Protein backbone atom coordinates (compact mmCIF):
# COMPACT_ATOMS: atom_id res chain seq x y z
CA UNK A 1 0.00 0.00 0.00
CA UNK A 2 1.29 3.45 -0.85
CA UNK A 3 1.93 5.93 1.93
CA UNK A 4 -0.31 8.96 1.77
CA UNK A 5 -1.50 11.60 4.20
CA UNK A 6 -0.35 12.10 7.76
CA UNK A 7 -2.60 9.88 9.83
CA UNK A 8 -2.01 10.06 13.56
CA UNK A 9 -2.65 6.51 14.69
CA UNK A 10 -4.59 5.86 17.87
CA UNK A 11 -4.76 8.61 20.50
CA UNK A 12 -3.69 7.61 24.00
CA UNK A 13 -4.07 9.05 27.47
CA UNK A 14 -7.78 9.84 27.28
CA UNK A 15 -8.95 7.76 30.20
CA UNK A 16 -11.20 9.43 32.77
CA UNK A 17 -9.16 11.52 35.17
CA UNK A 18 -6.21 11.87 32.81
CA UNK A 19 -5.25 14.20 30.02
CA UNK A 20 -4.53 17.31 32.07
CA UNK A 21 -1.04 16.37 33.19
CA UNK A 22 -1.97 16.60 36.86
CA UNK A 23 -0.18 13.41 37.78
CA UNK A 24 -1.58 10.84 40.20
CA UNK A 25 -5.22 10.99 39.06
CA UNK A 26 -4.21 9.92 35.57
CA UNK A 27 -1.20 7.78 36.44
CA UNK A 28 -0.91 4.67 34.27
CA UNK A 29 1.89 2.33 33.33
CA UNK A 30 4.43 0.15 35.14
CA UNK A 31 6.02 3.09 36.98
CA UNK A 32 2.78 4.44 38.47
CA UNK A 33 3.51 5.61 42.00
CA UNK A 34 7.16 6.46 41.29
CA UNK A 35 8.04 10.04 42.18
CA UNK A 36 10.68 11.86 40.15
CA UNK A 37 12.13 15.36 40.60
CA UNK A 38 13.61 16.80 37.40
CA UNK A 39 15.79 19.89 37.60
CA UNK A 40 15.01 21.69 34.35
CA UNK A 41 17.49 21.46 31.51
CA UNK A 42 17.48 20.74 27.79
CA UNK A 43 18.03 17.68 25.64
CA UNK A 44 18.70 14.24 27.07
CA UNK A 45 17.70 14.95 30.69
CA UNK A 46 14.16 16.10 29.85
CA UNK A 47 13.78 13.23 27.35
CA UNK A 48 14.76 10.69 30.02
CA UNK A 49 12.25 12.22 32.42
CA UNK A 50 9.60 12.17 29.67
CA UNK A 51 10.18 8.45 29.21
CA UNK A 52 9.68 7.90 32.94
CA UNK A 53 6.49 9.98 32.79
CA UNK A 54 5.28 8.02 29.76
CA UNK A 55 5.66 4.86 31.84
CA UNK A 56 3.54 6.26 34.66
CA UNK A 57 5.95 8.08 36.98
CA UNK A 58 4.83 11.32 38.63
CA UNK A 59 7.52 13.65 37.29
CA UNK A 60 7.74 17.10 38.85
CA UNK A 61 9.92 19.43 36.80
CA UNK A 62 11.56 22.26 38.72
CA UNK A 63 11.62 25.16 36.26
CA UNK A 64 13.54 28.34 36.84
CA UNK A 65 11.78 31.72 36.65
CA UNK A 66 12.30 33.23 33.22
CA UNK A 67 12.72 29.92 31.40
CA UNK A 68 15.96 28.62 30.01
CA UNK A 69 14.73 25.65 27.99
CA UNK A 70 14.42 25.16 24.26
CA UNK A 71 13.81 28.20 22.09
CA UNK A 72 10.30 27.00 21.30
CA UNK A 73 6.90 27.64 22.78
CA UNK A 74 6.74 25.49 25.96
CA UNK A 75 3.31 24.31 24.82
CA UNK A 76 5.05 22.42 22.00
CA UNK A 77 7.96 20.95 23.98
CA UNK A 78 6.93 17.31 23.77
CA UNK A 79 9.75 16.23 26.09
CA UNK A 80 7.75 17.83 28.91
CA UNK A 81 4.54 15.91 28.23
CA UNK A 82 2.84 14.17 31.13
CA UNK A 83 4.89 16.02 33.74
CA UNK A 84 4.02 18.67 36.31
CA UNK A 85 5.95 21.89 36.79
CA UNK A 86 6.76 24.15 39.72
CA UNK A 87 8.79 27.35 39.57
CA UNK A 88 11.76 27.58 41.93
CA UNK A 89 14.81 29.80 41.80
CA UNK A 90 17.69 27.65 42.99
CA UNK A 91 19.78 30.80 43.50
CA UNK A 92 17.24 32.29 45.90
CA UNK A 93 17.56 31.97 49.68
CA UNK A 94 14.90 29.26 50.02
CA UNK A 95 15.06 27.65 46.56
CA UNK A 96 17.37 24.76 47.48
CA UNK A 97 15.35 24.05 50.63
CA UNK A 98 12.16 23.66 48.58
CA UNK A 99 13.90 21.27 46.19
CA UNK A 100 15.11 19.23 49.17
CA UNK A 101 11.53 19.15 50.48
CA UNK A 102 10.55 17.50 47.21
CA UNK A 103 13.60 15.22 47.30
CA UNK A 104 12.58 13.96 50.74
CA UNK A 105 9.40 12.58 49.18
CA UNK A 106 10.91 11.42 45.87
CA UNK A 107 12.38 8.18 44.56
CA UNK A 108 14.51 9.74 41.82
CA UNK A 109 16.15 13.06 40.98
CA UNK A 110 17.45 13.91 37.51
CA UNK A 111 19.81 16.81 36.80
CA UNK A 112 21.92 17.81 33.82
CA UNK A 113 24.21 20.52 35.17
CA UNK A 114 27.95 20.63 34.60
CA UNK A 115 29.88 18.77 37.32
CA UNK A 116 29.90 20.66 40.60
CA UNK A 117 27.02 23.04 39.81
CA UNK A 118 24.38 21.10 41.76
CA UNK A 119 26.73 20.94 44.74
CA UNK A 120 27.29 24.70 44.63
CA UNK A 121 23.53 25.25 44.51
CA UNK A 122 23.02 23.07 47.57
CA UNK A 123 21.17 20.23 45.82
CA UNK A 124 24.06 17.86 45.11
CA UNK A 125 24.06 14.17 46.00
CA UNK A 126 25.31 14.68 49.56
CA UNK A 127 22.63 17.31 50.28
CA UNK A 128 19.90 15.12 48.82
CA UNK A 129 20.99 11.87 50.46
CA UNK A 130 21.13 13.61 53.82
CA UNK A 131 17.38 14.16 53.44
CA UNK A 132 16.57 10.91 51.63
CA UNK A 133 19.13 8.07 51.79
CA UNK A 134 17.06 5.94 49.40
CA UNK A 135 17.13 8.50 46.60
CA UNK A 136 18.47 7.55 43.17
CA UNK A 137 20.36 10.61 41.94
CA UNK A 138 20.61 10.60 38.14
CA UNK A 139 23.24 12.81 36.51
CA UNK A 140 23.07 13.46 32.77
CA UNK A 141 26.11 14.98 31.08
CA UNK A 142 28.01 14.69 27.84
CA UNK A 143 31.52 14.09 29.16
CA UNK A 144 30.67 12.58 32.56
CA UNK A 145 31.54 13.67 36.08
CA UNK A 146 35.27 12.99 35.71
CA UNK A 147 37.98 13.30 33.07
CA UNK A 148 39.88 16.19 31.45
CA UNK A 149 36.84 17.39 29.47
CA UNK A 150 34.28 17.01 32.26
CA UNK A 151 33.93 20.76 32.88
CA UNK A 152 33.92 21.86 29.24
CA UNK A 153 30.90 22.59 27.08
CA UNK A 154 29.80 20.23 24.35
CA UNK A 155 26.93 18.97 22.25
CA UNK A 156 25.84 15.66 20.78
CA UNK A 157 28.03 15.98 17.70
CA UNK A 158 31.24 16.29 19.73
CA UNK A 159 30.36 13.38 22.00
CA UNK A 160 29.66 10.97 19.16
CA UNK A 161 32.72 12.26 17.29
CA UNK A 162 35.25 11.14 19.90
CA UNK A 163 33.62 7.72 20.40
CA UNK A 164 34.08 6.73 16.76
CA UNK A 165 30.34 6.58 16.12
CA UNK A 166 30.17 9.70 13.94
CA UNK A 167 33.14 8.56 11.88
CA UNK A 168 31.21 5.46 10.81
CA UNK A 169 28.29 7.35 9.28
CA UNK A 170 28.20 8.66 5.73
CA UNK A 171 29.75 8.13 2.31
CA UNK A 172 33.47 7.53 1.82
CA UNK A 173 35.32 10.58 0.59
CA UNK A 174 32.71 12.91 2.08
CA UNK A 175 32.34 14.42 5.55
CA UNK A 176 30.60 12.19 8.09
CA UNK A 177 26.81 12.52 7.99
CA UNK A 178 25.22 14.11 11.07
CA UNK A 179 22.42 11.87 12.44
CA UNK A 180 20.48 14.74 14.10
CA UNK A 181 21.03 14.35 17.86
CA UNK A 182 19.56 10.88 18.10
CA UNK A 183 22.70 8.75 18.50
CA UNK A 184 24.33 10.76 21.29
CA UNK A 185 21.78 12.75 23.26
CA UNK A 186 18.99 10.21 23.23
CA UNK A 187 20.40 6.74 22.47
CA UNK A 188 23.74 7.14 24.23
CA UNK A 189 22.43 9.57 26.84
CA UNK A 190 18.74 9.45 27.81
CA UNK A 191 18.23 5.73 27.40
CA UNK A 192 21.34 4.88 29.42
CA UNK A 193 20.26 7.27 32.16
CA UNK A 194 16.86 5.56 32.36
CA UNK A 195 18.47 2.11 32.41
CA UNK A 196 20.80 3.26 35.18
CA UNK A 197 18.00 4.83 37.20
CA UNK A 198 15.82 1.74 37.02
CA UNK A 199 18.73 -0.53 37.97
CA UNK A 200 19.63 1.73 40.91
CA UNK A 201 15.98 1.74 42.01
CA UNK A 202 16.05 -2.04 42.17
CA UNK A 203 19.12 -1.82 44.40
CA UNK A 204 17.60 0.92 46.56
CA UNK A 205 14.43 -1.06 47.14
CA UNK A 206 16.41 -4.17 48.05
CA UNK A 207 18.89 -2.44 50.36
CA UNK A 208 17.34 0.87 51.39
CA UNK A 209 20.36 2.69 50.00
CA UNK A 210 20.31 5.07 47.06
CA UNK A 211 23.22 5.99 44.85
CA UNK A 212 24.42 8.31 42.10
CA UNK A 213 24.01 7.31 38.45
CA UNK A 214 26.67 9.00 36.29
CA UNK A 215 25.22 8.79 32.76
CA UNK A 216 27.70 10.26 30.27
CA UNK A 217 26.80 10.45 26.60
CA UNK A 218 30.34 9.44 25.62
CA UNK A 219 30.04 6.26 27.69
CA UNK A 220 26.63 5.30 26.35
CA UNK A 221 27.51 6.03 22.73
CA UNK A 222 30.71 4.02 23.01
CA UNK A 223 28.68 1.16 24.51
CA UNK A 224 26.38 1.22 21.47
CA UNK A 225 29.33 0.33 19.24
CA UNK A 226 30.02 -2.98 21.04
CA UNK A 227 29.04 -5.23 18.13
CA UNK A 228 31.09 -3.20 15.65
CA UNK A 229 34.18 -3.48 17.86
CA UNK A 230 33.68 -7.24 17.94
CA UNK A 231 33.39 -7.41 14.16
CA UNK A 232 36.50 -5.25 13.77
CA UNK A 233 38.46 -7.50 16.11
CA UNK A 234 37.38 -10.53 14.10
CA UNK A 235 38.43 -8.90 10.83
CA UNK A 236 34.86 -8.45 9.65
CA UNK A 237 34.77 -4.64 9.79
CA UNK A 238 37.09 -2.09 8.19
CA UNK A 239 37.69 1.05 10.24
CA UNK A 240 36.52 3.39 7.50
CA UNK A 241 33.19 4.58 6.11
CA UNK A 242 31.30 2.94 3.30
CA UNK A 243 33.32 -0.28 3.23
CA UNK A 244 31.23 -2.58 5.41
CA UNK A 245 28.07 -4.62 5.55
CA UNK A 246 26.04 -2.18 7.64
CA UNK A 247 27.45 1.26 6.77
CA UNK A 248 26.33 1.68 3.18
CA UNK A 249 29.28 -0.11 1.66
CA UNK A 250 27.16 -3.15 0.84
CA UNK A 251 24.92 -2.69 -2.25
CA UNK A 252 22.08 -4.69 -0.72
CA UNK A 253 22.07 -2.66 2.51
CA UNK A 254 21.58 0.99 1.66
CA UNK A 255 19.30 3.58 0.08
CA UNK A 256 18.42 4.22 -3.56
CA UNK A 257 16.79 7.16 -5.33
CA UNK A 258 13.55 6.65 -7.23
CA UNK A 259 12.34 8.39 -10.39
CA UNK A 260 10.45 11.05 -8.44
CA UNK A 261 13.34 11.99 -6.13
CA UNK A 262 12.22 9.75 -3.28
CA UNK A 263 14.27 6.97 -1.73
CA UNK A 264 13.90 3.30 -0.91
CA UNK A 265 15.80 1.55 1.89
CA UNK A 266 17.15 -1.92 1.17
CA UNK A 267 18.24 -4.39 3.85
CA UNK A 268 18.28 -7.73 2.01
CA UNK A 269 21.22 -9.22 3.90
CA UNK A 270 20.26 -12.90 4.09
CA UNK A 271 20.32 -14.97 0.91
CA UNK A 272 16.61 -15.83 0.92
CA UNK A 273 15.65 -12.18 1.35
CA UNK A 274 18.14 -11.11 -1.30
CA UNK A 275 16.65 -13.61 -3.76
CA UNK A 276 13.18 -12.14 -3.20
CA UNK A 277 14.57 -8.63 -3.52
CA UNK A 278 16.34 -9.19 -6.85
CA UNK A 279 13.32 -11.02 -8.27
CA UNK A 280 10.89 -8.24 -7.40
CA UNK A 281 13.36 -5.58 -8.49
CA UNK A 282 13.62 -7.32 -11.86
CA UNK A 283 17.33 -8.16 -11.95
CA UNK A 284 17.29 -11.81 -10.85
CA UNK A 285 19.71 -13.80 -12.97
CA UNK A 286 21.40 -10.64 -14.25
CA UNK A 287 22.89 -9.24 -11.05
CA UNK A 288 26.58 -9.81 -10.25
CA UNK A 289 27.23 -12.39 -7.55
CA UNK A 290 26.46 -10.81 -4.20
CA UNK A 291 29.45 -12.40 -2.46
CA UNK A 292 31.91 -11.01 -4.99
CA UNK A 293 32.99 -7.84 -3.18
CA UNK A 294 35.08 -6.82 -6.17
CA UNK A 295 31.86 -6.46 -8.16
CA UNK A 296 29.84 -4.65 -5.47
CA UNK A 297 30.17 -1.40 -7.41
CA UNK A 298 28.70 -3.04 -10.49
CA UNK A 299 25.87 -4.55 -8.44
CA UNK A 300 25.12 -1.20 -6.80
CA UNK A 301 24.78 0.50 -10.17
CA UNK A 302 22.48 -2.24 -11.44
CA UNK A 303 20.23 -1.84 -8.40
CA UNK A 304 20.32 1.97 -8.64
CA UNK A 305 19.39 1.91 -12.32
CA UNK A 306 16.31 -0.20 -11.67
CA UNK A 307 15.11 1.95 -8.77
CA UNK A 308 15.36 5.03 -10.98
CA UNK A 309 12.73 3.58 -13.33
CA UNK A 310 9.75 3.97 -10.95
CA UNK A 311 8.46 6.30 -8.26
CA UNK A 312 8.77 5.67 -4.55
CA UNK A 313 5.05 4.92 -4.35
CA UNK A 314 5.27 2.40 -7.17
CA UNK A 315 8.23 0.58 -5.62
CA UNK A 316 6.49 0.60 -2.22
CA UNK A 317 3.59 -1.25 -3.82
CA UNK A 318 5.95 -3.77 -5.41
CA UNK A 319 7.73 -4.70 -2.18
CA UNK A 320 5.02 -4.25 0.43
CA UNK A 321 4.13 -7.39 2.34
CA UNK A 322 7.11 -9.36 1.03
CA UNK A 323 10.29 -10.64 2.66
CA UNK A 324 12.51 -8.53 0.43
CA UNK A 325 13.34 -6.25 3.39
CA UNK A 326 12.67 -3.06 1.42
CA UNK A 327 10.85 0.02 2.74
CA UNK A 328 10.18 3.60 1.61
CA UNK A 329 12.25 6.34 3.24
CA UNK A 330 9.64 8.61 4.79
CA UNK A 331 9.84 12.12 6.18
CA UNK A 332 8.85 12.87 9.76
CA UNK A 333 5.49 14.21 8.61
CA UNK A 334 4.83 11.16 6.46
CA UNK A 335 5.81 8.56 9.06
CA UNK A 336 2.58 8.62 11.05
CA UNK A 337 0.65 7.79 7.86
CA UNK A 338 2.50 4.55 7.21
CA UNK A 339 -0.15 1.78 7.32
CA UNK A 340 1.75 -0.42 9.77
CA UNK A 341 2.55 2.42 12.17
CA UNK A 342 -1.00 3.74 11.95
CA UNK A 343 -2.40 0.29 12.72
CA UNK A 344 -0.16 -0.04 15.78
CA UNK A 345 -0.78 3.50 17.00
CA UNK A 346 2.95 4.19 16.94
CA UNK A 347 2.12 7.89 16.71
CA UNK A 348 -0.58 9.73 18.61
CA UNK A 349 -2.18 13.17 18.59
CA UNK A 350 -2.12 15.07 21.85
CA UNK A 351 -3.65 18.55 21.78
CA UNK A 352 -3.31 18.74 18.01
CA UNK A 353 0.39 17.79 17.99
CA UNK A 354 1.35 14.53 16.29
CA UNK A 355 4.05 12.76 18.32
CA UNK A 356 5.43 9.31 19.07
CA UNK A 357 3.33 7.26 21.48
CA UNK A 358 4.97 5.75 24.59
CA UNK A 359 7.31 2.80 24.05
CA UNK A 360 7.83 -0.02 24.79
CA UNK A 361 4.48 -1.72 25.37
CA UNK A 362 3.33 -3.70 28.39
CA UNK A 363 0.69 -6.42 28.58
CA UNK A 364 -0.42 -5.82 32.18
CA UNK A 365 0.41 -2.15 32.79
CA UNK A 366 -0.03 -0.26 29.51
CA UNK A 367 1.57 3.16 29.37
CA UNK A 368 -0.12 6.29 28.10
CA UNK A 369 0.45 9.99 27.60
CA UNK A 370 -1.41 11.63 30.48
CA UNK A 371 -1.15 15.20 29.29
CA UNK A 372 0.53 17.68 27.03
CA UNK A 373 3.72 19.60 27.81
CA UNK A 374 3.86 20.96 31.35
CA UNK A 375 3.88 24.74 31.25
CA UNK A 376 6.39 26.28 33.67
CA UNK A 377 4.90 26.69 37.13
CA UNK A 378 1.44 25.48 36.15
CA UNK A 379 1.14 22.77 38.79
CA UNK A 380 2.44 24.33 41.98
CA UNK A 381 -0.82 23.90 43.88
CA UNK A 382 -1.40 20.27 42.88
CA UNK A 383 2.20 19.27 43.64
CA UNK A 384 2.13 21.08 46.98
CA UNK A 385 -0.99 19.11 47.91
CA UNK A 386 -0.08 15.71 46.48
CA UNK A 387 3.51 15.73 47.73
CA UNK A 388 2.62 17.47 51.01
CA UNK A 389 5.01 20.36 50.48
CA UNK A 390 2.93 23.43 51.45
CA UNK A 391 6.06 25.58 51.42
CA UNK A 392 5.85 25.53 47.60
CA UNK A 393 2.81 27.81 47.74
CA UNK A 394 3.31 31.56 47.55
CA UNK A 395 3.34 33.27 50.91
CA UNK A 396 0.23 35.33 51.57
CA UNK A 397 0.80 39.04 51.92
Features:
six-stranded parallel β-sheet; 397 residues; 14 helices; disordered N terminus; alpha/beta; elongated; three-stranded antiparallel β-sheet
Give a description of the structure.
There is one protein chain. By secondary structure, the protein is of the alpha/beta class. Helices cover 33% and strands 13% of the residues. The strands form three sheets. A six-stranded parallel beta sheet has the order 3-2-1-4-5-6, sandwiched between helices. Strands 7-8-9 form a three-stranded antiparallel beta sheet, with helices on one face. The protein has a two-stranded antiparallel sheet with strand order 10-11. A hairpin with a 5-residue loop joins strand 7 and strand 8 (263-267). Helix 5 packs across helix 7. It is elongated.
In short:
With 397 residues, the protein is of the alpha/beta class. The protein has helices spanning 44-54, 95-104, 117-121, 125-131, 156-162, 182-207, 217-224, 226-233, 271-281, 296-307, 312-319, 332-335, 339-344, 380-386, and strands at residues 35-39, 58-63, 84-87, 108-111, 136-141, 211-216, 253-257, 263-267, 326-328, 347-350, 353-356.
Amino acid sequence: MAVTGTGTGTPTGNAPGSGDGTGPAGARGPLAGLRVVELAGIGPGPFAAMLLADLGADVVRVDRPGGGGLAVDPAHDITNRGKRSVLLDLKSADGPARVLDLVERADVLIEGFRPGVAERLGVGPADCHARNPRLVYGRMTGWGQEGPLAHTAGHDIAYIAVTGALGMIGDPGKPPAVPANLVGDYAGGSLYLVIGVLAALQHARATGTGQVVDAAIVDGTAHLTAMIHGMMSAGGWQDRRGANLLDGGCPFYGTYETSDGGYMAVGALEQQFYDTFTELLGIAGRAPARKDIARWGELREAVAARFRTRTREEWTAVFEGTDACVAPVLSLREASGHPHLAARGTFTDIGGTVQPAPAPRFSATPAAVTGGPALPGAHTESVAADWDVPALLPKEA
